[in-house]
Fold this sequence. Notes:
The protein is an alpha+beta fold. It has four domains: 33-168, Immunoglobulins (Immunoglobulin-like, Sandwich); 176-292, Immunoglobulins (Immunoglobulin-like); 297-428, Immunoglobulin-like (Sandwich), CATH 2.60.40; 436-539, Sandwich (Immunoglobulin-like), CATH 2.60.40. The chain is built from two helices and 37 strands. The protein has helices at 3-20, 541-624; strands spanning 33-40, 48-50, 54-62, 69-76, 79-85, 111-115, 124-131, 136-145, 156-163, 176-181, 194-197, 209-214, 229-233, 237-241, 252-254, 261-265, 271-279, 282-292, 297-302, 306-307, 312-313, 335-340, 359-362, 368-375, 389-396, 405-413, 420-422, 426-430, 436-441, 445-446, 451-459, 469-471, 474-479, 494-496, 500-507, 513-521, 529-536. The longest helix is centred in the last third of the chain and has 84 residues, at 541-624. It is flat. 33% of the residues are buried.
Amino acid sequence: xxxxxxxxxxAAVAAVALTLGGFSAVTAHATxxxxxxxxxxxxxxxxxxVIGGQAKVTFNVAGGANGAIYxxxxxxxxxxxxxAGSGDSTHSFVAPLGSPAAATVSFPTSSLTFGLAANGxxxxxxxxxxxxxxxxxQTFSITPINTTTGVAGTATTKAITWVAATxxxxxxxxxxxxxxxxxxxxxxxxxxxVLAANTAQTAASSxxxxxxxxxxxxxxxxxxxxxxxxxxxxxGTIGVGVDNTVASAGRAVTGxxxxxxxxxxxxxxxxxxxxxxxxxxxxxxxxxxxxxxSVAKATVTQVLNVARAGTQLGATPNANAAINTxxxxxxxxxxxxxxxxxxxxxxxxxxxxxYGALKLTSSDSTIIxxxxxxxxxxxxxxxxxxxxxFECYVSGAAGAVSGSKATITVGALLSDTVTRVTSxxxxxxxxxxxxxxxxxxxxxxxxxxxxxTATITATDSxxxxxxxxxxxxxxxxxxxxxxxxxxxxxxxxxxxINGVATYTGAYAPSIEGTLNITGVDAVSTAAEALSATASxxxxxxxxxxxxxxVDAANEATDAxxxATDAxxxxxxxADAAQxxxxxxxxxxxxxxxxxxxxxxxxxAIATQIAALSALVKKIAAKVKA
Length: 625
C-alpha cells in the first residue's frame, strides 16, 4: 500500500471515528461573541494589580444559547476570591453561580462552572474577583461547552499581572514622550526630526523645538508630581515648565513637580544637540535637535533628463513633499537641490533664501529655459524634515531641436548679497515623440528563478532619446511557449526617462533553456513586433535540483544494471559448477567400479596363490621324505 493511500485511509478512519464520537467541526453557536475586560485593577489598561489588593475581570457572553455552560479556571499566581453574574437576581445563571445556588461555591477557588439559564437568556456578564499575595501572572480561562455533545470549545483568556507596591516608582519602560519643531504641542509617541537655525534665542516663542514627557510607573500608571532634570550636550539651552510658554533657563535645569514640557533654544553655534531627560537617576528619554549654520554647499539630484521643445519638464514645485511623489514623470520634479552647512547638515527652513531667491542659470536658454524652485516645508512623514531641500522644474525652449543640450546650475545668495553658493551643472536635452522602440532584457543570461528586468529604449525620428513621459509603451509582451506564454507584465503604465522605460517583477523559469519574449509596440500605428532573448543556465535552484535528480536516477539505473549483470554471471558460474560436480560424480562411480572389480580379481588370485603355496608345501614335504 502506498504512503498516499495509507494517509487517505487514516484520514477516512479518523473522520468516521469523529462522527461516531459525536465530534463536530462546526461551532455550537456561530453568532456568539465572548469578550473579556478589566473592571477593577491598579491599571485597567494593562491589567496590572498590586499584591495584597484585589482585581476584577468581566466575561461577557453575547448571543449564547439557552442552557449554555462555561468552565472557568485560574492558573499561575493568585486565586478566584468571588464570582457573580449580572443576572443573578433573575436567576439567569444556574448552579453553582445562580442565586441562591452561588452559595454552594467554596471561595477561594481555582475553578468553577457557570451557565445561562434555559429561560431565553442569551447574554450575560460574569464578574470574577481575584487576589494574590505573590507577584506574577494570573491567567483566567473560560471554555464554552457544547450543550449537545459535551465537547469543549475554544477557550478565551485574560491575564492579570500582580506587582509589588515598589513598582509605583517611575519607569522608563512605560514613560512616553514626543517632540515637535518650534514652539508647539507635541503628540506623545511622535518625534519630528528638527533642523533649526543656530541663531541664539531665549524667548519661548522662538523655541527651536518642544518636548513633552509623560512619566509613568512600573504599572504603566501616570505620575502627576515628578520633578524632571533636563540637560543639553552640544549646542543650545533649555527651559522646563508645565506648558510650552517657558523661556530659556540654562543647559541643565530641574523643573517643578508636574512640569513636563521642555523648550529647546539655539545659542548661536551649529551642530547636533542631545537633550537628556531624567527623573532622579532614571533616564526617561533623549532627543536630538540639529542646529544648522549658513549655506556652504548645494547638491543637485537630477530626476528627469529629456525635455520636449516648448514644454515644461517636471511637475510644478510644491512645498508638500507628499504631492510630487516621483512615482511617475507627471509627479516628478526635474531636479531636487539640497543646501547644507559646513557640518554637512541640511540648513534650516528659509536659510537658503534668507538673502534672496535661488538663481537658476542655463548655459543656453535657447535650448533649456530655467524654471523656479520651491522649498519643502511639509514632510511626507512626521519623523522626516525637508527644510533646506527644494524641488525645481525647467522647460524646453520653443524651437529647440532634438538632441541639443544645455546645463543648469542653481545657487543661493549669502549674507553679503553678492556671493552665491552654486551647484555643479546638470545636463538636460531635447527629444521628440517616440518613433522607434527596442525591447531588451537586463542580462544575456539568468540563473533559474532569478529576477528578470526588461527595458524599452524609445527614440525619436532623429534617433535621439524621446522626451520624458508616462504611458503604455508595449503590450502583450509574453514569454514564449517555453513558459506557456506567461505575461511579463509590460502592458502597464510606465515612465520613459532619458529614453528608457524599465519593467521589473518577472522571474526567470525554473528550468534551463532559452528564454524568448515577444510583444507589440504600443505607441506605433504599425504595431511593430518587439522581442528579446536570454539564456537560463546553472545557478542551482530548481534547474540544478532537477538535473541532480536526473543524474541520481541515471546512476541508480546503472547500478541496478550492473547488479543484474553480476547476478546473471553468478548464476552461470553456479550452473557450470553443478555440471562439473555431476561429471566428477560419474567419473567417481566408474573408478569405484573398476577398483571393486580389481579387488575381486586380486582376492581370487590371492586364493589361488594360497592354494598353490599349500601344494608346494606338500610337494616339498614329500621330497624330503
